[in-house]
Amino acid sequence: MKMNKNRIQWLALMGMVGLIFYFLHVILGEISYPGYNPLSQAVSDLTAATAPSREIASAYSTVYAFFTVAACTLLCVFYQGRVNKVFRLGIYLFAVMEWTSAIGYTLFSLSDSGYAGTSQDVMHMVVTAFVVLLSIVSMVLIAVGCFKSKVHKQFGILTMAVLGLMALGSIATGIVPVGYFGIAERLSVYSVVIYSAALSLFTFRYPI
């Protein structure tokens, strides 16, 4: 049994691999998109139907989604009977969020850079709303679970800090000048992406 647990912890590090592919999708996507402005444009523009970077950005984004979803699914298995019920519920909802993100954004990428208002774009925004809601609820539960366990209090603090950055980014997207929309959006998106990898690392270091 101990060997199985260790194996899951090693496999959970796929979340760290996913992080690498996420930023490769951003970096290579920007390189492949002439005129792309990261200060004002969203990351989603890189995989829009008409984006010149769609092919390469989508390829790396798909690999990122695979590794991240796999890692989060393994977390659900690993934490059965561990920490406490509140923490586990948070982990389960976080995994649901990652599945929603992976499937939803694959099916409903933007039809064009920005927001063209098509049914495809509307569904993209619906997916985003669900992802944000699930992210907030799951991270709050994970943080509360960490504080209840006492020994994981530091990770609870990290979780709340990341949640604060995500919320700040989400709020900022609605108030910053259009020319800086990309910065605010990245603050929110990158927070969740990096936190997914942090969960994988936390699981790998978890004492058994």
Question: Would you write up a description of this structure?
Answer:
This protein is an all-alpha fold and 208 residues long. It has one domain. The protein is built from seven helices and no strands. It has helices at 2-12, 14-31, 54-78, 85-107, 119-149, 153-172, 181-204. Helix 2 runs antiparallel to helix 3. The longest helix has 31 residues, at 119-149. It is globular. The mean pLDDT is 91.
Give a short overview:
By secondary structure, the protein is mainly alpha-helical. The protein contains seven helices and no strands.
Keywords summarizing the entry:
mainly alpha; globular; 73% helix; 208 residues
- Class from secondary-structure proportions: mainly alpha
Main sheet summary: none
Provide the succession of SSEs. Answer: HHHHHHH
Instruction: Compute the number of structural domains.
Output: 1
How big a fraction of the residues is strand? under 5%
Overall form: globular
How many DSSP H or I helices? 7
Rounded mean pLDDT score: 91
